[in-house]
């Protein structure tokens, strides 16, 4: 046995787990749909490790994500649809096609004479053009099944997390000039949507009358994503950072109160605010990068 396992070892492990006679009962029960939540979770764990700077554990998290790909490939192989080699082959071919500035002859062995003068924006323009050509070659005409006209918003994945989809929608619209002229106007729009949300809340008849509030809150969040784009910040990443910051501060507050023998539940809001500010100050002193 080699001193370090490789991809073939991982594929063999997957074969063992899915063996109908001696495989793992849990793994044998899974199908494409049942694995999806695990894939999403593993993707976010990779992102979390990177954002926390926990590079020591990043290989472990990347391995968990790779295992998801191996699992899907095994299911495809069992059904005679595709296998892991097909996955590798297709992504390699696609990346060669979409990087003609690196692989001018369309082969992995080809080399460019030079890439001087080419910018990342040029790369993205080529990427979108080639991607559209691929879709047309597959017979996937823009506009969809309802014979709708082609749109800049075609091929945006429907199931993206809401913040990510909002950012993609905005970027596509901005490509044709449908965008705010400057950051100041986005701040003004954010304030406007905040006022409209407050007005909708004030107009609620009862606690079930939330339709208008939900609509205005969605508009506020959409503009917040737009603002993040103008500021050069990823909204999803910013919110995850705030989540970590809140969790760190709240846990510190719980620890402080427990050490003093004080119950958190039942405290008046004014006292809770004092506890929170104290915990916030101490926690941020320990972890200033998220302060």
Strand segment tally: 0
SSE order, as H and E?
HHHHHHHHHHH
Q: What is the correct CATH architecture of the domain at 7-97?
A: Orthogonal Bundle
Structural category is mainly alpha
Catalytic activity: ATP + H2O = AMP + diphosphate + H(+)
Protein name: Nucleoside triphosphate pyrophosphohydrolase
Enzyme class: hydrolase
Family: Belongs to the nucleoside triphosphate pyrophosphohydrolase family.
Task: Please provide a written account of the structure.
The protein has helices at 7-17, 25-29, 32-51, 58-78, 84-97, 120-137, 162-175, 183-202, 211-231, 235-259, 269-286. The mean pLDDT is 90. The relative contact order is 0.05. Among the domains are: 7-97, Helix Hairpins (Orthogonal Bundle), CATH 1.10.287.1080; 180-233, MazG-like (Helix Hairpins, Orthogonal Bundle), CATH 1.10.287; 237-290, no CATH class. It is mostly helical and 291 residues long.
Record keyword descriptors for this entry.
globular; 291 residues; EC 3.6.1.8; NTP-PPase_MazG-like_C; mainly alpha; Helix Hairpins
Ordered list of secondary-structure elements with their pairings:
Layout lengths: L6 H11 L7 H5 L2 H20 L6 H21 L5 H14 L22 H18 L24 H14 L7 H20 L8 H21 L3 H25 L9 H18 L5
Helix pairs in contact: 1-4, 3-4, 7-9, 8-9, 10-11
Catalytic activity: ATP + H2O = AMP + diphosphate + H(+)
Enzyme class: hydrolase
EC number: 3.6.1.8
